[in-house]
Every structure is written in C-alpha cells, then in structure tokens.
Amino acid sequence: MTHDQIEAMAREVALSVFGLVSCAGDKAVPDGAQTLVLLGPGEPGFWDHVTSTPEFADGAADPLDRWSTRVVKALSDRLGGTAIFPFGGPPYAPFQRWATDSGRAWPSPVGLLVHDTAGLWVSYRGAIALPFGVATPTQPAKPCDTCTAKPCLTACPVGALTGDGYDLPRCHAHLDGAGSATCMAQGCQVRAACPAGASYGRVDAQSAFHMAQFHR
Length: 216
Hints:
Structural class: alpha+beta
Distance between the termini: 42 Å
Strand content: 15-25%
Largest sheet: 4 strands, antiparallel
Number of strands: 8
Strand order of the largest sheet: 1-2-6-3
Number of helices: 8
Oligomer: single chain
C-alpha cells in the first residue's frame, strides 16, 4: 500500500492524508502498529460533502465528530488498521506531537501548528494506525521559513493572538462585542492571514461552524 493509494481512498470520503508517522514503539498506538496516517479535511469540497451527510440532518449534537468517527473507522477497516481520534477523551491522543513528527506541520510564529498545504487552517479529523510500513513522500519545507511578511503576527484585530502568546479572555471578549462579525463568520483572522493556506479551499461556512463551537 502506497501513500498515493491511501490518499485516493481518503479522497473518496472528502479526507486527505495530512502526514505519515513511523510509530513503531509509540505507546499511544496499538501494539504492532508501524505507520500512523494523519487525516484532515480534503479540500476543496469538504464542507459541502460533510453537511450533506446524515449526521448533519438528525439534529443530534457533535455532527462533525460523529461523521469523523463513522468515516475514519470505515476507512480504517478497509486498510486493516485501527482508528484513533483527537476527541472523545481524556486522555487524548497526542495529535500535536504526531503532526510535528510527520514532517508536514510545524509551530508557527504565533504558536499554532502550520501545515504545508492547509496552513493555519490545519485540523485533524482522525488517524489510522497501520500494521505495515508506508513509504513517506519527499518532505516539504516549512512554509514560515520563506514567509517574509508573517501576517499572522499582526492579523488579530485585538492583539489576542500574537508572537507573545494567546490571550484567551481578550479573544472571547472581542467575540462578545459588536466588532466580531468577521471573526465569527469567517473564522480566526490570524488563521485566515496565513499565505500557506490561501489556496487550501476552506469555506467560510466551516469556519463559522467551528467558531460557534468555540465561542458558545
């Protein structure tokens, strides 16, 4: 099984391979696992696909996590692996560590993970631990190394997320105010400013969904 074959299978269900990790001996994966496949939203088209599924029509809570659970488990069964998720804990699986171990995500100047194709929009819907090795494609360069403007450092309208850290109370206070319409409708402006994710294809409706979950 190759990376491209797994990517093609993931694309069938609006997902994409966001990284591969050699995980033999990792205590956070099942015994015998050799490769961890990190899965994120496959763009363009992810949100249109997901919101047309039964999980978004039944009125129950957590539709995106329930969709992810169903789809990633089904894909895992096809591959003969074990599905792992970043939700449902504690304890939580170490997705941040796995992301950096994959060589396709790094800490950005504002501390958030930045991905080679998703930029600061990077998120993980699940992972699959496989009992066999998968060759890793050529690793990309960290996009921040060639980003001279670094707009993420100044994009937050109230300075809640900068190179000095994240002021969560200031962020929520802004979202409570009259000037929060752009953030609530289009997502975090720091994430949106990242050039690495400019062509990723994330739509505003998905960002608005996540903001509504974040700022209930």
